[in-house]
Design goal:
Elements: E1 14-18, H1 23-34, E2 41-46, E3 54-57, E4 60-63, E5 65-66, E6 77-80, H2 84-96, E7 100-103, E8 132-134, H3 138-153, E9 159-166, H4 173-187, E10 207-208, H5 221-233, E11 241-247, E12 254-262, H6 269-279, E13 283-285, H7 297-300, E14 306-313, E15 321-329, H8 333-345
Parallel strand pairs: 1-2, 1-6, 2-5, 6-7, 7-8, 9-11, 13-14
Antiparallel strand pairs: 3-4, 9-12, 10-11, 12-15, 14-15
Helix pairs in contact: 1-8, 3-6, 3-8
Length: 350
């Protein structure tokens, strides 16, 4: 696999989107437009069954091509959102063709030499790439954007405990469609709602994240990703995170309840945390106690900022200090597509 030039910058890069027909692929098109990304040319790639279909981009109708090893000639940046198997198969071919790959799957996240990048946290790591840059897990991104300013501006975090409330969109467009279908089935009075994706009723229910569970540790893959990816992104192998991931019957945008512990007592912890959040890129405070107005999935949907609220000191900690807060973020956008485009923006000539 060829090694791309880490310092190469582009004025108007030639872009390819692998997985253009999926939920993240559609949002990549929207976000490239919304952010005014200077696209020199755009190639849309998907499976053979989608080849020949069309999508609109900036007033132009583009025809989708089949994703193959030969798809990346004359491509500067390839944005992959086609799943881990496709990334493992085709990303090396894109690199060999001279493209910089920004991959949204889990295929390369923990691979040595592949940067795992959240631009608000570790943008410089992107320039250490050898052809592939990995987008972290969506829940990891949302958590990291909010935790990083506390960890670096308030006090080093000694332990992070997170519970996630994850929307259907985290499992793709088909899961979103099934949740909508389950709502219709329930309204129609059907004895059993459609259960093709998760094999269980989703509406009016919640359940442990559907990722495979390690029988020894009891952690599922989603939880493990948040633990190990955060260590890599923060460049801190000792950063401690405990996670419980849950699916909730929400179409779009994940939420997370976060508790951060500090070894030392932090005077005026709440005020310092609010100041850090207020100054943090990609974070917006939604915290009105009088109106009981805090982050919600509907408020975060189709937004790029991570909404943070319920900011308060944890009174149960007797030694040191602890902070609690609640966040909501659109994991299709900031948790996937927007983060990938932000990484690509790092390589634009300014």
């Amino acid at each position: 696999m060829a090694v791309a030039a880490a310092a190469k910058k582009f004025r108007a890069p030639r872009i390819a989107i692998a997985g253009a027909t999926g939920a993240v692929g559609h949002d990549l098109l929207r976000i490239l437009t919304e952010r005014g990304f200077p696209v020199g040319s755009l190639k849309l790639l998907a499976s053979a069954r989608s080849a020949g279909k069309t999508l609109d981009f900036r007033g132009e109708t583009l025809t989708i091509e089949e994703l193959t090893e030969d798809s990346f000639k004359d491509v500067d940046i390839a944005l992959f959102s086609a799943g881990g198997a496709q990334s493992k198969r085709f990303a090396p071919a894109a690199v060999d063709a001279g493209a910089l790959v920004i991959d949204n799957s889990s295929a390369f996240r923990m691979t040595d030499g592949v940067p795992l990048v959240v631009p608000e946290v570790n943008p410089d790591a992107a320039f250490e790439h050898k052809g592939i840059i990995a987008n972290p897990n969506c829940s990891t991104i949302l958590m990291n954007v909010a935790v990083w300013p506390i960890h670096t501006k308030v006090s080093p975090v000694s332990r992070c405990v997170v519970s996630t409330y994850q929307a259907a969109s985290g499992a793709g467009a088909a899961a979103m469609a099934e949740l909508e279908q389950q709502a219709r089935d329930w309204v129609d009075g059907k004895e059993k709602v459609t259960q093709d994706i998760f094999g269980r009723q989703y509406i009016w229910n919640l359940f442990s994240h559907n990722a495979p569970v390690d029988l020894e540790t009891g952690y599922n893959e989603e939880e493990t990703k948040m633990v190990v990816e955060t260590k890599k992104i923060f460049n801190d192998p000792d950063f401690r995170t405990a996670v419980t991931c849950v699916r909730v019957p929400v179409l779009r945008a994940h939420c997370e309840a976060v508790n951060l512990a500090f070894d030392e007592d932090v005077p005026d912890l709440e005020a310092k945390a609010r100041a850090a959040f207020a100054d943090a890129p990609g974070v917006r405070i939604v915290d009105d106690r009088e109106a009981n107005a805090f982050p919600e999935p509907l408020l975060a949907s189709n937004q790029d900022d991570i909404l943070v609220g319920r900011i308060r000191k944890d009174p149960s900690v007797r030694s040191g200090s602890a902070l609690e807060f609640f966040l909501a973020g659109d994991q299709v956008r900031k948790g996937a597509a927007t983060n990938a485009v932000q990484i690509a923006e790092l390589f634009l000539e300014r």
